[in-house]
Amino acid sequence: MDLEEARATLFDTLSSVSGTDSIPLAGALGRITAEPIYAQLSLPPFPASAMDGYAVRREDFAQKKPLRLIGQSLAGHPFNGSVGIGECVRIFTGAVVPEGADLVILQERLAAAGAGQDNGESVHFEDHEPDENFIRPVGNDVEKGQVICGAGERLTPLTLGSLASAGVSRIEVVRKVRVGIFSSGDELRDPGTPPEALKLGQIYDSNAFTLANLLQHLPVDLVPLQHLADDEETVEKALADAAERCDMLITSVGVSVGDADFIGATIALLGQLAFWRLNLKPGKPLAFGSIGDCRVFGLPGNPVST
Predict the structure, then answer these.
(1) Distances in Å between the alpha carbon of 93 and those of 46, 75, 124, 173, 208?
(2) Three-state secondary structure along the chain?
(3) Burial label, 71 (beta-carbon count in 10 A; 0-12, 13-18, 19+)
(4) Does the pLDDT at position 46 exceed 60?
(5) How many other C-beta atoms can be found within 10 angstroms of the C-beta atom of residue 191?
(6) What is the C-alpha end-to-end distance of the chain, expressed in Å?
(7) Does the pLDDT of residue 255 top 60, yes or no?
(8) What are the tens digits of pLDDT across the range 201-226?
């Protein structure tokens, strides 16, 4: 079977797992959303300055007269009061624009500052026409109740940052896919086995190690499974038992045409074999099928083929 035909067959056969988990945002990287996620508040939640400068009343600025500086507004430390006639407030990016002000004059446009008639500080601005008011209104970025992330989306660092900024702390995600990995073959030994303990004809099992690490970045739970001996009855019982506990099984070795290759035949015996052998080198002896609701991938034994 050609590779693209095999891929089409595979995706026509696969379906989503059922079940969800409610998890904190801090542990949600890479997970898949189970439902739409809505903003819990508007962003910004208050009129915010887009620049460093001075919050003024536009009609006062238009008169081109000095304004009395009555305080400052910083991010997290808003000015406690309102801007009245002939007044202004020093303001910084992200800070709350005080009531009464409807324009921020950029600090680069400050022409002079000094003592006013009442011993307060007075500021005077260059004569210019502001490009905009430099005020971000409530909900400028996100409105409360707006969908930030749809169902079925993988959560990335940027998405999680958006959710955090919108007051989301806990979300419903699709439960992790339970994946079991088998290696089969009497010649295989665990990588921790001392080299001197290897008998003639024995090699280390590298495929299971490789496959497990390839899955680490995906939202899966790896189910520990034992090594399979080259015994038909053992393989049949092990696959049947594992299929009850896993959503997906991945086996390595045992899918070719040797006398000790039982994986493909066992998949067909216990369930359905969708295809076997690809028009692909390396990687030709690949089997894919299902045992009950569990999808099974029978991979070849050569590490490069795997």
Answers:
(1) 13, 7, 20, 35, 53
(2) CCHHHHHHHHHHHCCCCCCEEEEEHHHCCCCEECCCEECCCCECCCCEECCCEEEECHHHHHCCCCEEEEEEEECCECCCCECCCCEEEEECCCCECCECCCEEEEHHHEEEEEECCCCCEEEEECCCCCCCCCEECCCCCECCCCEEECCCCECCHHHHHHHHHCCCCEEEEECCEEEEEEEECCCEECCCCCHHHCCCCCEECCHHHHHHHHCCCCCEEEECCCCECCCHHHHHHHHHHHHHHCCEEEEECCCCCCCCCCHHHHHHHHCEEEEECCCCCCCCCCEEEEECCEEEEEECCCCCCC
(3) middle
(4) yes
(5) 9
(6) 17
(7) no
(8) 888 888 888 899 999 888 999 998 87
| Token pair for 47 | 């009129």
Please provide the size of the chain in residues: 306
Place of tokens 């009395």: 68
Residue that has been written with the tokens 């009343």 in this structure:
57
